[in-house]
Amino acid sequence: MPFTSLPERRGEILCVGELLWDALPAGLFLGGAPFNVACHLRAAGAAVTMVTRVGNDQLGDEARRRVARFGVSTDLVQVDTSLPTGFVRVTVADDGNAAYDILEPAAWDNLETTRTLLDRADAAQAVVFGTLAQRGGVTRDTLRRILDTRALKVLDVNLRPPYDDRRSRGLPWPLPRSAWRSARRDRAGRRRGSGAAAPFPPPRAVRARCRRPPDP
Q1: Full strand arrangement of the beta sheet holding 126-130
Q2: Distance from first CA to last CA of the chain, Å, rounded?
Q3: 11-192 has which CATH code?
Q4: What is the pLDDT of residues 12-33, one digit of tens each?
Q5: Is pTM beyond 0.90 here?
Q6: What's the CA gap between 183 and 216, in Å, rounded?
Q7: Spatial CB neighbours of 100, under 8 Å, sequence gap ≥ 6
Q8: pLDDT digits 0-9 by tens, 35-87
Q9: Residue 13 CB-half CA count within 13 A
Q10: CA–CA dist 92, 111 (Å, integer)
Q11: SS3 of 124, please?
Q12: Of 96, 93, 104, 101, which Cα lies nearest the Cα of 137?
């Protein structure tokens, strides 16, 4: 379906999926493909809300503070009393390639369906979602219900081993249901998320630094 044939809709854009901390040799950095997209969209002037789940812990509290400091709404960020905030151990090889140990289960695997969430999705301009968040059944079921709403759906493909094919839960069912898709290849030739989902890419002048909070 060409973009020009889609009805124009105004409103917020929901970025749904993982919010996590990358443990790099240089320290902890807030990340997750949906968060990166949310930062770019907000820098381009869009009204953006992050839809995810964090733990009832220090990393979760800090994650919500940093998301808010980028101007991204956090009122749909859920807090899990049992599971921890997402965490990734990153190992960087001498050639610059990185390996990711994405710990599970994490709070973002347990994103619950609520009436408020479905109503907001139905009224949204678009819903941006990825592949990694679909590894957990609870979040996957919630996403399935979100994708039944009227918003434009944008899939940001972000394949990370071992969640990089259908057999490993990384890429289940929603590819045909997405109006737009965005992906690129990493240095090893695997397809992964682009960091900016069509049809809402930031203008060239935007250089949103999503892995560091803005100055106070």
Answers
A1: 77-80, 48-55, 13-16, 126-130, 152-156, 180-182
A2: 43
A3: 3.40.1190.20
A4: 999 999 999 999 989 999 999 9
A5: no
A6: 33
A7: 88, 89, 90, 160, 161
A8: 999 999 999 999 999 999 999 999 999 999 999 999 999 999 999 999 999 99
A9: 29
A10: 30
A11: coil
A12: 104
Q: Tell me the pLDDT band of 200, cut-offs 50, 70 and 90.
A: very low
CA gap 6, 172 in Å, rounded: 25
Tokens of 216: 């106070």
d(Cα 99, Cα 11) in Å, to the nearest integer?
37
Nearest by Cα to 151 from 114, 174, 118, 173: 118
Scored b (16 or more CB within 10 A) or e, 22-44 reads: bbbeeeeebbbbbbbbbbbbbbb
Joined together, the tokens standing for residue 176 give 């045909």
Residue 98's identity, in one-letter code, is A
Q: Which residue type, as a one-letter code, is found at position 202?
A: P
Domains of the chain by residue range? 11-192
Rounded Cα gap, residues 13 and 41, in angstroms: 8
For the record, the structure tokens of 49 come out as 């809300």
DSSP 34-84: HHHHHHHHHHTT--EEEEEEEESSHHHHHHHHHHHHTT-B-TTEEEESSSP
List the alpha helices (DSSP H) in 77-182.
Answer: 115-123, 137-146
What are the residues whose beta carbons fall under 8 Å from the beta carbon of 66, sequence distance 6 or more? 30, 213
CB atoms within 10 A of CB 17: 29
